[in-house]
Amino acid sequence: MKIVDALARHGGLDQTLPLQAGLIMYFSDFFHSLPLAAIYIFSVLLVLGALALGILLGRRHLAHSGDDKGSSVGSAVAATLALLAFLLAFTFNMTADRFNQRKALLLNEVNAIQTTYLNARFLDSADTRRARTLLLEYVDLRDLDLRTDEITDEDLARSRVLHGELWRLVDRAIDGGHEPGYLRQFVEPLNTVINFDNSRNVVGLQYRIPGPIWLALYFMTALAMLAIGFQFGISRGGSPQVAVALALTFATVILLIADLDRTTEGFLLVDQKPMSELNRLLREAERGAASQ
């Protein structure tokens, strides 16, 4: 406690903590911005390089000492691989849970928008038309093909503007003495839409694997491959085929984790079909209402 108090008095904490937070953000942004192909190639090269270095060290050790120490090295390799497997499973579960959360948030937002659109009839007729027009534009903003469309800051800002315009309709209804029981039928789903919009933006665009976990994952992978290579070296075992198989296996798992961590790129993207289907249904409803 004395050290902490001294650092606080001299500004040490104020300077150190922002620096640490900045480094964490830097590594997180760095790994998240790397192309998936680069991550895969780097992972393969890292595994092959660590294996080659381990084999070289193992053979040099065997040439100098003549003692293979097979049992002790085997135990160390098993322990290292167990820790690496735990870290891989932990990281994979983290990204898989967030992937499932993104799917659930999409479906929940689609249901909330549809309910808000239907319950706009509890407003005055002019406000009903205005609310439904705003919701149609909002669905257009949310209806994206993640493989080709880009989520821009302008679209996110426009979504917040639409939220404000929809709430102004609520304020106007309150000022006009609208029946609270009827108005609540529109307010509650609208509030849900706004909440899910914020949740989707945070979970999809801000939450990601922290940089320290990436560093630990690569460090443990390199250490495990180094240990395996050392065991190959002292036992005069191993082969290029085994090395390539290990490299491709671990690189594929790491690539899968990185892919799940991405929202707008890669092979494992959340299917946006529910939002597209809602967009189609609402536009058909508008055309039907206009023809009457």
UniProtKB/TrEMBL annotation:
A Pfam family assignment: Bestrophin-like
Organism superkingdom: Bacteria
Record bears the keyword Kinase: no
Keywords assigned by UniProt, alphabetized: Membrane, Transmembrane, Transmembrane helix
Membrane-spanning intervals of the chain: 34-56, 76-96, 213-234, 240-258
Record flagged with keyword Cell membrane: no
Protein name stated in the entry: DUF4239 domain-containing protein
UniProt source species: Microbulbifer taiwanensis
Biological classification of the source: Bacteria, Pseudomonadati, Pseudomonadota, Gammaproteobacteria, Cellvibrionales
